[in-house]
Amino acid sequence: MLDPRVWLLWAMTVLVTASSARNPLYAAVLLLVTMVVGTTCTVNGGRRAPLSPFHFAMIAIPLSALFNSLTGSFGDTVLFALPAWLPVVGGPVTLEAIVFGAVNGLALTVIFSSFAIFNAVTPIRDLIKLTPRAFHDAGIVLSIALTFIPQTTGSLQRIREAQAVRGHRVRGLRDWLPIVMPLLMSGLERSMGLAEAMVARGYGSVSDAAQPLRSQVLLALGLLLLLGGWLAYLFGSSWHLPAIGVMLLGTLLIGSVLWSAGRSVSHTTYRPRRWSYRDSAAVLGCALALTVALSQSEALYYSPYPRLSAPGFDPLIGLGLLGLVVPALVGMRRKEEGQL
Amino acid sequence: MTLERLLGGAIYFLTGAIGILAFIYPFFLPVAADGAGLFARSQQAPLLTAVLVGLSVLALTVELQGQAINAKTVAMLGVLVAVTSVLRFLEVAFPLPGGFSPVFAPIILAGYVFGGRFGYLMGTFSLLASALITGGVGPWLPYQMFTAGWVGLTAGWLKRIPGLAGRRSDDSLNLGIGTRALILLAVFGFFWGLLYGVIINVYFWPFATGPVDQTWAPGISLGETLGRYAVFYLVTSLAWDLFRAWGNVALILLLGAPMAKALTRFQRRFHFEVGSHA
Fold it and tell me: B-contacting residues of A 304-333, CB under 8 Å?
Protein backbone atom coordinates (compact mmCIF):
# COMPACT_ATOMS: atom_id res chain seq x y z
CA MET A 1 0.00 0.00 0.00
CA LEU A 2 1.37 3.41 -0.96
CA ASP A 3 1.82 6.31 1.43
CA PRO A 4 -1.32 8.54 1.51
CA ARG A 5 0.85 11.56 0.65
CA VAL A 6 1.89 9.77 -2.55
CA TRP A 7 -1.76 9.19 -3.44
CA LEU A 8 -2.52 12.86 -2.81
CA LEU A 9 0.36 13.85 -5.08
CA TRP A 10 -0.88 11.40 -7.73
CA ALA A 11 -4.45 12.80 -7.67
CA MET A 12 -3.17 16.39 -7.82
CA THR A 13 -0.88 15.52 -10.76
CA VAL A 14 -3.79 13.96 -12.67
CA LEU A 15 -5.83 17.10 -11.89
CA VAL A 16 -3.15 19.46 -13.23
CA THR A 17 -2.49 17.30 -16.30
CA ALA A 18 -6.16 16.70 -17.17
CA SER A 19 -6.98 20.39 -16.72
CA SER A 20 -4.70 21.29 -19.60
CA ALA A 21 -5.25 18.15 -21.74
CA ARG A 22 -8.01 19.09 -24.18
CA ASN A 23 -6.43 16.87 -26.85
CA PRO A 24 -8.75 13.82 -26.85
CA LEU A 25 -5.86 11.40 -27.48
CA TYR A 26 -3.90 12.54 -24.42
CA ALA A 27 -7.14 12.71 -22.40
CA ALA A 28 -7.84 9.11 -23.47
CA VAL A 29 -4.34 8.09 -22.31
CA LEU A 30 -5.07 9.68 -18.93
CA LEU A 31 -8.43 7.93 -18.71
CA LEU A 32 -6.75 4.62 -19.52
CA VAL A 33 -4.17 5.29 -16.80
CA THR A 34 -6.87 6.00 -14.18
CA MET A 35 -8.77 2.85 -15.23
CA VAL A 36 -5.64 0.68 -14.86
CA VAL A 37 -4.71 2.25 -11.52
CA GLY A 38 -8.31 2.01 -10.30
CA THR A 39 -8.63 -1.66 -11.25
CA THR A 40 -5.26 -2.62 -9.77
CA CYS A 41 -5.15 -0.60 -6.58
CA THR A 42 -8.68 -0.24 -5.24
CA VAL A 43 -9.88 -2.86 -2.80
CA ASN A 44 -13.35 -3.89 -1.74
CA GLY A 45 -14.54 -1.97 1.29
CA GLY A 46 -12.90 1.34 0.38
CA ARG A 47 -14.96 4.53 0.38
CA ARG A 48 -16.84 4.64 -2.89
CA ALA A 49 -18.08 7.80 -4.59
CA PRO A 50 -21.89 7.85 -5.01
CA LEU A 51 -21.33 7.55 -8.77
CA SER A 52 -18.81 5.20 -10.40
CA PRO A 53 -16.39 6.76 -12.95
CA PHE A 54 -18.09 4.70 -15.68
CA HIS A 55 -21.53 6.05 -14.81
CA PHE A 56 -20.09 9.53 -14.46
CA ALA A 57 -18.62 9.26 -17.99
CA MET A 58 -21.95 7.99 -19.35
CA ILE A 59 -23.60 11.14 -17.99
CA ALA A 60 -20.86 13.80 -18.31
CA ILE A 61 -19.65 13.17 -21.87
CA PRO A 62 -23.05 13.14 -23.67
CA LEU A 63 -24.41 15.93 -21.47
CA SER A 64 -21.40 18.15 -22.06
CA ALA A 65 -21.53 17.45 -25.82
CA LEU A 66 -25.27 18.19 -25.90
CA PHE A 67 -24.98 21.38 -23.85
CA ASN A 68 -22.05 22.71 -25.86
CA SER A 69 -23.65 21.85 -29.23
CA LEU A 70 -26.92 23.56 -28.31
CA THR A 71 -25.40 26.66 -26.79
CA GLY A 72 -22.19 27.09 -28.81
CA SER A 73 -22.85 27.97 -32.45
CA PHE A 74 -19.24 27.95 -33.64
CA GLY A 75 -17.59 25.72 -36.24
CA ASP A 76 -17.82 25.25 -40.00
CA THR A 77 -19.48 21.80 -40.17
CA VAL A 78 -23.14 22.65 -39.60
CA LEU A 79 -25.23 19.52 -38.97
CA PHE A 80 -28.59 21.27 -38.65
CA ALA A 81 -29.97 24.54 -37.34
CA LEU A 82 -32.51 25.31 -34.65
CA PRO A 83 -34.81 28.31 -35.15
CA ALA A 84 -32.96 31.50 -34.28
CA TRP A 85 -35.89 32.83 -32.22
CA LEU A 86 -35.38 30.06 -29.62
CA PRO A 87 -33.63 31.65 -26.62
CA VAL A 88 -30.15 30.31 -25.73
CA VAL A 89 -30.30 27.18 -27.95
CA GLY A 90 -31.26 28.83 -31.23
CA GLY A 91 -28.74 28.75 -34.12
CA PRO A 92 -26.66 26.19 -36.01
CA VAL A 93 -25.56 22.95 -34.31
CA THR A 94 -22.01 22.10 -35.41
CA LEU A 95 -19.91 18.94 -35.32
CA GLU A 96 -17.02 20.92 -33.84
CA ALA A 97 -19.14 22.07 -30.88
CA ILE A 98 -20.21 18.45 -30.19
CA VAL A 99 -16.59 17.25 -30.26
CA PHE A 100 -15.35 20.08 -28.02
CA GLY A 101 -18.13 19.41 -25.51
CA ALA A 102 -17.39 15.68 -25.50
CA VAL A 103 -13.65 16.34 -24.91
CA ASN A 104 -14.51 18.59 -21.97
CA GLY A 105 -16.67 15.79 -20.56
CA LEU A 106 -13.77 13.38 -21.03
CA ALA A 107 -11.38 15.67 -19.09
CA LEU A 108 -13.96 15.98 -16.30
CA THR A 109 -14.28 12.19 -16.18
CA VAL A 110 -10.50 11.82 -15.78
CA ILE A 111 -10.47 14.29 -12.86
CA PHE A 112 -13.47 12.61 -11.24
CA SER A 113 -11.90 9.14 -11.66
CA SER A 114 -8.61 10.20 -10.08
CA PHE A 115 -10.30 11.55 -6.95
CA ALA A 116 -12.66 8.56 -6.81
CA ILE A 117 -9.53 6.35 -6.71
CA PHE A 118 -7.90 8.61 -4.11
CA ASN A 119 -11.01 8.33 -1.91
CA ALA A 120 -11.15 4.55 -2.36
CA VAL A 121 -7.49 3.76 -1.60
CA THR A 122 -6.78 6.07 1.36
CA PRO A 123 -8.33 5.14 4.71
CA ILE A 124 -9.89 8.06 6.61
CA ARG A 125 -7.47 7.57 9.52
CA ASP A 126 -4.52 8.01 7.17
CA LEU A 127 -6.04 11.22 5.83
CA ILE A 128 -6.43 12.60 9.36
CA LYS A 129 -2.81 11.71 10.06
CA LEU A 130 -1.88 14.05 7.22
CA THR A 131 -3.22 16.97 9.28
CA PRO A 132 -0.24 19.21 10.17
CA ARG A 133 0.62 19.42 13.86
CA ALA A 134 -0.40 23.09 13.91
CA PHE A 135 -3.98 21.90 13.40
CA HIS A 136 -3.94 19.51 16.31
CA ASP A 137 -7.29 20.75 17.67
CA ALA A 138 -8.81 20.73 14.20
CA GLY A 139 -7.63 17.13 13.78
CA ILE A 140 -9.29 16.19 17.07
CA VAL A 141 -12.57 17.81 15.98
CA LEU A 142 -12.41 15.86 12.74
CA SER A 143 -11.57 12.63 14.58
CA ILE A 144 -14.51 13.12 16.95
CA ALA A 145 -16.84 13.88 14.04
CA LEU A 146 -15.75 10.82 12.06
CA THR A 147 -15.96 8.61 15.16
CA PHE A 148 -19.45 9.85 15.98
CA ILE A 149 -20.85 9.57 12.46
CA PRO A 150 -21.63 5.81 12.74
CA GLN A 151 -23.18 6.38 16.18
CA THR A 152 -25.23 9.30 14.86
CA THR A 153 -26.40 7.21 11.90
CA GLY A 154 -27.40 4.46 14.35
CA SER A 155 -29.23 7.00 16.52
CA LEU A 156 -31.09 8.31 13.48
CA GLN A 157 -32.22 4.80 12.60
CA ARG A 158 -33.35 4.08 16.18
CA ILE A 159 -35.24 7.38 16.45
CA ARG A 160 -37.01 6.75 13.14
CA GLU A 161 -38.04 3.25 14.29
CA ALA A 162 -39.23 4.55 17.66
CA GLN A 163 -41.30 7.29 16.01
CA ALA A 164 -42.68 4.80 13.47
CA VAL A 165 -43.87 2.58 16.33
CA ARG A 166 -45.79 5.61 17.62
CA GLY A 167 -47.46 5.92 14.22
CA HIS A 168 -45.29 8.76 12.92
CA ARG A 169 -44.76 8.89 9.15
CA VAL A 170 -42.45 11.21 7.22
CA ARG A 171 -44.54 12.85 4.51
CA GLY A 172 -43.09 16.33 4.37
CA LEU A 173 -40.43 18.62 5.83
CA ARG A 174 -42.52 19.32 8.94
CA ASP A 175 -42.51 15.61 9.80
CA TRP A 176 -38.73 15.68 10.23
CA LEU A 177 -39.01 17.75 13.42
CA PRO A 178 -39.72 14.75 15.76
CA ILE A 179 -36.70 13.01 14.22
CA VAL A 180 -34.16 15.84 13.97
CA MET A 181 -34.71 17.22 17.49
CA PRO A 182 -34.06 13.96 19.41
CA LEU A 183 -31.05 13.39 17.13
CA LEU A 184 -29.67 16.82 17.97
CA MET A 185 -30.40 16.53 21.68
CA SER A 186 -28.83 13.09 22.01
CA GLY A 187 -25.76 14.33 20.11
CA LEU A 188 -25.40 17.37 22.37
CA GLU A 189 -25.79 15.21 25.51
CA ARG A 190 -23.08 12.93 24.14
CA SER A 191 -20.79 15.90 23.53
CA MET A 192 -21.33 16.97 27.15
CA GLY A 193 -20.15 13.57 28.39
CA LEU A 194 -17.25 13.57 25.96
CA ALA A 195 -16.13 17.05 27.05
CA GLU A 196 -16.17 15.97 30.71
CA ALA A 197 -14.16 12.87 29.87
CA MET A 198 -11.65 14.96 27.93
CA VAL A 199 -11.21 17.42 30.79
CA ALA A 200 -10.87 14.52 33.26
CA ARG A 201 -8.06 13.13 31.11
CA GLY A 202 -6.28 16.49 31.11
CA TYR A 203 -7.20 17.82 27.68
CA GLY A 204 -6.29 21.49 27.38
CA SER A 205 -4.43 21.56 30.69
CA VAL A 206 -1.16 22.46 28.97
CA SER A 207 -2.12 23.82 25.56
CA ASP A 208 -5.10 25.96 26.55
CA ALA A 209 -3.12 29.14 26.05
CA ALA A 210 -4.17 31.72 23.52
CA GLN A 211 -2.10 32.28 20.41
CA PRO A 212 0.91 34.56 21.00
CA LEU A 213 0.73 38.08 19.62
CA ARG A 214 3.79 37.45 17.46
CA SER A 215 1.93 34.70 15.56
CA GLN A 216 -1.00 36.99 14.89
CA VAL A 217 1.32 39.72 13.59
CA LEU A 218 3.13 37.25 11.30
CA LEU A 219 -0.18 35.80 10.05
CA ALA A 220 -1.60 39.24 9.26
CA LEU A 221 1.64 40.29 7.54
CA GLY A 222 1.81 37.05 5.54
CA LEU A 223 -1.78 37.47 4.35
CA LEU A 224 -1.13 41.12 3.46
CA LEU A 225 1.87 40.12 1.35
CA LEU A 226 -0.16 37.37 -0.35
CA LEU A 227 -2.96 39.78 -1.21
CA GLY A 228 -0.60 42.55 -2.36
CA GLY A 229 1.49 40.13 -4.43
CA TRP A 230 -1.57 38.66 -6.07
CA LEU A 231 -3.00 42.06 -6.96
CA ALA A 232 0.36 43.04 -8.48
CA TYR A 233 0.46 39.71 -10.37
CA LEU A 234 -3.01 40.30 -11.82
CA PHE A 235 -2.76 43.97 -12.69
CA GLY A 236 0.91 44.78 -13.17
CA SER A 237 2.25 42.99 -16.23
CA SER A 238 5.78 44.33 -15.58
CA TRP A 239 5.72 43.30 -11.88
CA HIS A 240 5.26 39.61 -12.58
CA LEU A 241 8.45 38.32 -10.95
CA PRO A 242 8.50 40.70 -7.94
CA ALA A 243 4.83 39.80 -7.32
CA ILE A 244 5.69 36.08 -7.21
CA GLY A 245 8.53 36.91 -4.79
CA VAL A 246 6.16 38.84 -2.51
CA MET A 247 3.65 35.96 -2.54
CA LEU A 248 6.42 33.49 -1.70
CA LEU A 249 7.49 35.69 1.23
CA GLY A 250 3.88 35.77 2.47
CA THR A 251 3.68 31.99 2.16
CA LEU A 252 6.92 31.68 4.14
CA LEU A 253 5.57 33.86 6.96
CA ILE A 254 2.33 31.84 7.19
CA GLY A 255 4.39 28.63 7.02
CA SER A 256 6.59 29.83 9.87
CA VAL A 257 3.49 30.42 12.05
CA LEU A 258 2.23 26.91 11.26
CA TRP A 259 5.66 25.43 12.01
CA SER A 260 5.95 27.30 15.29
CA ALA A 261 2.37 26.32 16.32
CA GLY A 262 3.14 22.70 15.43
CA ARG A 263 6.32 22.61 17.55
CA SER A 264 4.29 22.95 20.74
CA VAL A 265 2.35 19.77 19.97
CA SER A 266 4.04 16.49 20.71
CA HIS A 267 2.97 13.73 18.38
CA THR A 268 3.77 10.05 18.67
CA THR A 269 2.91 7.23 16.32
CA TYR A 270 2.64 3.59 17.23
CA ARG A 271 4.42 1.60 14.52
CA PRO A 272 5.12 4.47 12.08
CA ARG A 273 4.77 3.73 8.40
CA ARG A 274 8.06 3.40 6.56
CA TRP A 275 8.72 5.09 3.23
CA SER A 276 9.40 2.38 0.66
CA TYR A 277 10.98 2.27 -2.79
CA ARG A 278 7.42 1.89 -4.18
CA ASP A 279 6.56 5.32 -2.81
CA SER A 280 9.71 6.78 -4.37
CA ALA A 281 8.92 5.13 -7.72
CA ALA A 282 5.37 6.56 -7.71
CA VAL A 283 6.68 10.04 -6.84
CA LEU A 284 9.16 9.85 -9.73
CA GLY A 285 6.34 8.80 -12.07
CA CYS A 286 4.25 11.78 -10.95
CA ALA A 287 7.23 14.12 -11.36
CA LEU A 288 7.72 12.88 -14.93
CA ALA A 289 4.05 13.42 -15.84
CA LEU A 290 3.98 16.83 -14.14
CA THR A 291 7.09 17.95 -16.02
CA VAL A 292 5.47 16.94 -19.29
CA ALA A 293 2.18 18.66 -18.39
CA LEU A 294 3.84 21.92 -17.42
CA SER A 295 6.44 22.06 -20.20
CA GLN A 296 4.13 20.87 -23.02
CA SER A 297 0.89 22.56 -21.98
CA GLU A 298 0.32 24.02 -25.47
CA ALA A 299 0.86 20.62 -27.13
CA LEU A 300 -1.69 19.05 -24.75
CA TYR A 301 -4.30 21.59 -25.84
CA TYR A 302 -6.54 20.97 -28.86
CA SER A 303 -9.27 23.01 -30.46
CA PRO A 304 -11.59 21.55 -33.12
CA TYR A 305 -12.59 25.06 -34.24
CA PRO A 306 -13.13 26.36 -36.87
CA ARG A 307 -13.09 23.05 -38.84
CA LEU A 308 -12.64 19.64 -37.24
CA SER A 309 -9.16 18.22 -37.79
CA ALA A 310 -7.31 15.19 -36.46
CA PRO A 311 -5.56 15.97 -33.15
CA GLY A 312 -1.78 15.57 -33.08
CA PHE A 313 -0.07 12.99 -30.92
CA ASP A 314 3.55 12.98 -29.80
CA PRO A 315 4.52 9.49 -28.52
CA LEU A 316 7.11 11.02 -26.19
CA ILE A 317 4.44 13.13 -24.45
CA GLY A 318 2.20 10.05 -24.27
CA LEU A 319 5.06 8.09 -22.67
CA GLY A 320 5.65 10.88 -20.17
CA LEU A 321 1.98 10.78 -19.13
CA LEU A 322 2.33 7.03 -18.57
CA GLY A 323 4.45 7.94 -15.52
CA LEU A 324 1.11 8.16 -13.72
CA VAL A 325 0.58 4.41 -14.12
CA VAL A 326 3.49 3.60 -11.74
CA PRO A 327 1.18 3.11 -8.69
CA ALA A 328 -0.52 0.29 -10.63
CA LEU A 329 2.82 -1.33 -11.50
CA VAL A 330 4.14 -1.29 -7.94
CA GLY A 331 0.72 -2.45 -6.74
CA MET A 332 0.87 -5.44 -9.09
CA ARG A 333 4.36 -6.22 -7.88
CA ARG A 334 3.06 -6.29 -4.32
CA LYS A 335 0.21 -8.62 -5.23
CA GLU A 336 2.66 -11.04 -6.82
CA GLU A 337 4.84 -10.91 -3.71
CA GLY A 338 1.77 -11.58 -1.58
CA GLN A 339 0.93 -14.66 -3.64
CA LEU A 340 4.44 -16.00 -3.24
CA MET B 1 -6.32 42.86 24.25
CA THR B 2 -7.34 45.65 21.88
CA LEU B 3 -4.29 44.98 19.70
CA GLU B 4 -5.14 41.26 19.62
CA ARG B 5 -8.69 42.06 18.55
CA LEU B 6 -7.41 44.47 15.91
CA LEU B 7 -5.03 41.85 14.55
CA GLY B 8 -7.79 39.23 14.63
CA GLY B 9 -10.02 41.62 12.69
CA ALA B 10 -7.23 42.25 10.17
CA ILE B 11 -6.80 38.49 9.64
CA TYR B 12 -10.55 38.09 9.06
CA PHE B 13 -10.51 40.99 6.62
CA LEU B 14 -7.44 39.81 4.69
CA THR B 15 -8.61 36.19 4.36
CA GLY B 16 -12.01 37.49 3.28
CA ALA B 17 -10.39 39.79 0.71
CA ILE B 18 -8.24 36.95 -0.67
CA GLY B 19 -11.30 34.68 -0.79
CA ILE B 20 -13.41 37.29 -2.58
CA LEU B 21 -10.59 38.07 -5.02
CA ALA B 22 -10.13 34.34 -5.66
CA PHE B 23 -13.72 34.11 -6.78
CA ILE B 24 -14.00 37.38 -8.71
CA TYR B 25 -10.54 37.64 -10.29
CA PRO B 26 -11.85 36.31 -13.64
CA PHE B 27 -13.87 39.49 -13.92
CA PHE B 28 -10.66 41.52 -13.85
CA LEU B 29 -8.65 39.31 -16.21
CA PRO B 30 -9.58 41.44 -19.24
CA VAL B 31 -8.05 44.43 -17.50
CA ALA B 32 -5.01 42.39 -16.52
CA ALA B 33 -4.66 40.62 -19.85
CA ASP B 34 -1.61 41.44 -21.89
CA GLY B 35 -2.17 39.60 -25.16
CA ALA B 36 0.38 36.80 -25.48
CA GLY B 37 0.62 36.39 -21.73
CA LEU B 38 -3.07 35.58 -21.46
CA PHE B 39 -2.75 31.91 -22.40
CA ALA B 40 -0.05 31.31 -19.79
CA ARG B 41 -2.03 33.22 -17.15
CA SER B 42 -5.26 31.40 -17.86
CA GLN B 43 -3.35 28.14 -17.39
CA GLN B 44 -1.65 29.23 -14.14
CA ALA B 45 -4.51 31.20 -12.61
CA PRO B 46 -6.70 28.29 -11.38
CA LEU B 47 -3.72 26.59 -9.75
CA LEU B 48 -2.53 29.81 -8.14
CA THR B 49 -6.07 30.57 -6.96
CA ALA B 50 -6.45 27.13 -5.39
CA VAL B 51 -3.12 27.57 -3.54
CA LEU B 52 -4.09 31.03 -2.28
CA VAL B 53 -7.56 29.90 -1.16
CA GLY B 54 -5.95 26.91 0.59
CA LEU B 55 -3.47 29.21 2.39
CA SER B 56 -6.32 31.53 3.44
CA VAL B 57 -8.29 28.61 4.88
CA LEU B 58 -5.18 27.45 6.78
CA ALA B 59 -4.41 30.94 8.10
CA LEU B 60 -7.96 31.63 9.29
CA THR B 61 -8.28 28.17 10.83
CA VAL B 62 -5.01 28.53 12.77
CA GLU B 63 -6.10 32.00 13.95
CA LEU B 64 -9.52 30.78 15.13
CA GLN B 65 -8.09 27.62 16.61
CA GLY B 66 -5.42 29.64 18.41
CA GLN B 67 -8.01 31.50 20.48
CA ALA B 68 -7.75 28.99 23.33
CA ILE B 69 -10.21 26.38 22.06
CA ASN B 70 -11.42 24.35 25.06
CA ALA B 71 -12.55 20.76 25.51
CA LYS B 72 -16.25 21.66 25.52
CA THR B 73 -16.00 23.55 22.24
CA VAL B 74 -14.00 20.76 20.64
CA ALA B 75 -16.48 18.08 21.77
CA MET B 76 -19.59 20.01 20.78
CA LEU B 77 -18.09 21.04 17.44
CA GLY B 78 -17.12 17.44 16.69
CA VAL B 79 -20.58 16.09 17.51
CA LEU B 80 -22.44 18.83 15.61
CA VAL B 81 -20.19 18.26 12.58
CA ALA B 82 -21.09 14.55 12.83
CA VAL B 83 -24.82 15.35 12.87
CA THR B 84 -24.48 17.71 9.88
CA SER B 85 -22.37 15.17 7.99
CA VAL B 86 -25.06 12.53 8.48
CA LEU B 87 -27.58 14.97 7.00
CA ARG B 88 -25.29 15.43 3.99
CA PHE B 89 -24.89 11.68 3.72
CA LEU B 90 -28.70 11.44 3.49
CA GLU B 91 -28.61 14.08 0.76
CA VAL B 92 -26.14 11.95 -1.26
CA ALA B 93 -27.95 8.67 -0.59
CA PHE B 94 -31.42 10.01 -1.42
CA PRO B 95 -30.96 12.77 -4.01
CA LEU B 96 -33.08 15.79 -3.10
CA PRO B 97 -34.64 18.18 -5.62
CA GLY B 98 -32.20 20.55 -7.35
CA GLY B 99 -29.56 22.08 -5.12
CA PHE B 100 -31.56 21.52 -1.93
CA SER B 101 -29.24 20.57 0.91
CA PRO B 102 -30.04 20.15 4.61
CA VAL B 103 -26.47 21.12 5.55
CA PHE B 104 -26.74 24.90 5.56
CA ALA B 105 -29.58 25.38 8.08
CA PRO B 106 -27.61 23.77 10.99
CA ILE B 107 -24.49 25.77 10.05
CA ILE B 108 -26.47 29.04 10.02
CA LEU B 109 -28.21 28.27 13.33
CA ALA B 110 -24.99 27.19 15.04
CA GLY B 111 -23.21 30.30 13.77
CA TYR B 112 -26.05 32.49 15.01
CA VAL B 113 -26.23 30.90 18.48
CA PHE B 114 -22.53 30.23 19.19
CA GLY B 115 -20.97 33.09 17.23
CA GLY B 116 -19.09 33.58 13.99
CA ARG B 117 -15.93 31.75 15.01
CA PHE B 118 -17.82 28.57 15.89
CA GLY B 119 -19.95 28.97 12.74
CA TYR B 120 -16.87 29.24 10.52
CA LEU B 121 -15.28 26.14 12.03
CA MET B 122 -18.55 24.21 11.81
CA GLY B 123 -19.07 25.17 8.16
CA THR B 124 -15.52 24.26 7.19
CA PHE B 125 -15.36 20.97 9.10
CA SER B 126 -18.87 19.87 8.12
CA LEU B 127 -17.99 20.05 4.44
CA LEU B 128 -14.61 18.38 5.05
CA ALA B 129 -15.96 15.52 7.20
CA SER B 130 -18.90 14.85 4.90
CA ALA B 131 -16.59 14.87 1.86
CA LEU B 132 -14.40 12.28 3.60
CA ILE B 133 -17.29 9.92 4.30
CA THR B 134 -19.07 10.35 0.97
CA GLY B 135 -15.94 10.17 -1.19
CA GLY B 136 -16.35 13.82 -2.16
CA VAL B 137 -12.72 14.93 -1.82
CA GLY B 138 -11.72 16.83 -4.94
CA PRO B 139 -10.44 20.13 -6.30
CA TRP B 140 -13.81 21.71 -5.48
CA LEU B 141 -13.47 20.98 -1.74
CA PRO B 142 -11.35 24.05 -0.66
CA TYR B 143 -13.88 26.34 -2.33
CA GLN B 144 -16.83 24.54 -0.69
CA MET B 145 -15.11 24.64 2.72
CA PHE B 146 -14.24 28.31 2.39
CA THR B 147 -17.75 29.31 1.30
CA ALA B 148 -19.53 27.17 3.93
CA GLY B 149 -17.15 28.64 6.55
CA TRP B 150 -18.23 32.11 5.53
CA VAL B 151 -21.89 31.10 5.78
CA GLY B 152 -21.33 30.22 9.46
CA LEU B 153 -19.07 33.22 10.11
CA THR B 154 -21.53 35.77 8.73
CA ALA B 155 -24.44 34.11 10.55
CA GLY B 156 -22.63 34.97 13.78
CA TRP B 157 -22.55 38.64 12.80
CA LEU B 158 -26.37 38.76 12.64
CA LYS B 159 -26.56 38.59 16.41
CA ARG B 160 -24.91 42.00 16.60
CA ILE B 161 -27.86 43.64 14.86
CA PRO B 162 -29.57 45.70 17.55
CA GLY B 163 -33.21 45.17 18.37
CA LEU B 164 -33.47 41.51 17.39
CA ALA B 165 -35.94 39.62 19.57
CA GLY B 166 -34.46 36.81 21.60
CA ARG B 167 -31.34 38.68 22.68
CA ARG B 168 -32.55 38.86 26.25
CA SER B 169 -29.79 36.62 27.51
CA ASP B 170 -30.49 37.53 31.13
CA ASP B 171 -33.90 35.93 30.96
CA SER B 172 -33.19 32.31 31.84
CA LEU B 173 -36.58 31.14 30.58
CA ASN B 174 -36.23 32.75 27.17
CA LEU B 175 -33.91 30.35 25.38
CA GLY B 176 -35.20 30.51 21.82
CA ILE B 177 -35.05 33.17 19.17
CA GLY B 178 -37.73 35.71 18.39
CA THR B 179 -39.91 35.87 15.30
CA ARG B 180 -37.93 38.77 13.83
CA ALA B 181 -34.66 36.90 14.25
CA LEU B 182 -36.18 33.78 12.71
CA ILE B 183 -37.41 35.70 9.68
CA LEU B 184 -34.02 37.40 9.37
CA LEU B 185 -32.28 34.00 9.47
CA ALA B 186 -34.67 32.66 6.82
CA VAL B 187 -33.89 35.63 4.55
CA PHE B 188 -30.19 35.11 5.30
CA GLY B 189 -30.55 31.41 4.37
CA PHE B 190 -32.27 32.34 1.10
CA PHE B 191 -29.53 34.86 0.29
CA TRP B 192 -26.72 32.36 0.98
CA GLY B 193 -28.58 29.60 -0.89
CA LEU B 194 -28.19 31.64 -4.05
CA LEU B 195 -24.82 33.21 -3.23
CA TYR B 196 -23.26 29.79 -2.59
CA GLY B 197 -24.12 28.80 -6.17
CA VAL B 198 -22.95 32.14 -7.57
CA ILE B 199 -19.60 31.79 -5.82
CA ILE B 200 -18.98 28.12 -6.58
CA ASN B 201 -19.78 28.69 -10.29
CA VAL B 202 -17.30 31.51 -10.66
CA TYR B 203 -14.24 29.35 -10.10
CA PHE B 204 -14.80 27.35 -13.28
CA TRP B 205 -16.83 29.83 -15.35
CA PRO B 206 -13.90 31.55 -17.13
CA PHE B 207 -12.83 28.16 -18.47
CA ALA B 208 -16.31 26.94 -19.46
CA THR B 209 -17.35 26.77 -23.07
CA GLY B 210 -20.68 27.88 -24.44
CA PRO B 211 -22.45 30.62 -26.35
CA VAL B 212 -20.76 33.98 -26.77
CA ASP B 213 -23.25 35.87 -24.61
CA GLN B 214 -22.63 33.51 -21.65
CA THR B 215 -18.89 32.90 -21.64
CA TRP B 216 -15.91 34.99 -20.78
CA ALA B 217 -13.59 36.08 -23.59
CA PRO B 218 -10.27 37.94 -23.47
CA GLY B 219 -10.57 41.68 -23.89
CA ILE B 220 -14.20 42.24 -22.87
CA SER B 221 -14.96 45.00 -20.38
CA LEU B 222 -15.81 44.46 -16.73
CA GLY B 223 -19.44 45.46 -17.32
CA GLU B 224 -19.81 43.01 -20.19
CA THR B 225 -18.13 40.26 -18.16
CA LEU B 226 -20.61 40.76 -15.33
CA GLY B 227 -23.49 40.82 -17.80
CA ARG B 228 -22.38 37.58 -19.45
CA TYR B 229 -21.93 35.88 -16.08
CA ALA B 230 -25.41 37.01 -15.05
CA VAL B 231 -26.89 35.45 -18.21
CA PHE B 232 -24.85 32.25 -17.67
CA TYR B 233 -26.04 32.04 -14.07
CA LEU B 234 -29.69 32.70 -14.96
CA VAL B 235 -29.66 30.06 -17.71
CA THR B 236 -27.67 27.28 -16.04
CA SER B 237 -27.92 27.65 -12.26
CA LEU B 238 -30.70 29.86 -10.93
CA ALA B 239 -33.43 27.20 -11.06
CA TRP B 240 -31.12 24.69 -9.36
CA ASP B 241 -30.02 27.13 -6.66
CA LEU B 242 -33.58 28.26 -5.92
CA PHE B 243 -34.26 24.80 -4.49
CA ARG B 244 -31.35 25.33 -2.09
CA ALA B 245 -32.49 28.84 -1.19
CA TRP B 246 -36.14 27.91 -0.55
CA GLY B 247 -35.01 24.70 1.18
CA ASN B 248 -32.97 26.80 3.62
CA VAL B 249 -35.98 29.06 4.24
CA ALA B 250 -38.28 26.08 4.87
CA LEU B 251 -35.82 24.32 7.19
CA ILE B 252 -35.07 27.46 9.19
CA LEU B 253 -38.74 28.38 9.56
CA LEU B 254 -39.80 24.83 10.51
CA LEU B 255 -36.84 23.68 12.59
CA GLY B 256 -35.07 26.94 13.46
CA ALA B 257 -36.90 27.89 16.65
CA PRO B 258 -36.67 24.51 18.46
CA MET B 259 -33.10 23.93 17.24
CA ALA B 260 -31.95 27.37 18.37
CA LYS B 261 -33.63 26.76 21.74
CA ALA B 262 -31.79 23.46 22.17
CA LEU B 263 -28.46 24.95 21.11
CA THR B 264 -28.88 27.95 23.44
CA ARG B 265 -29.74 25.64 26.36
CA PHE B 266 -26.58 23.63 25.80
CA GLN B 267 -24.52 26.77 25.28
CA ARG B 268 -25.54 27.86 28.79
CA ARG B 269 -24.76 24.44 30.22
CA PHE B 270 -21.36 24.48 28.58
CA HIS B 271 -20.57 27.93 29.91
CA PHE B 272 -21.53 27.02 33.46
CA GLU B 273 -18.42 27.02 35.62
CA VAL B 274 -17.81 27.04 39.37
CA GLY B 275 -15.45 29.87 40.28
CA SER B 276 -12.22 28.99 42.12
CA HIS B 277 -13.17 31.26 45.06
CA ALA B 278 -16.37 29.29 45.73
Answer: none
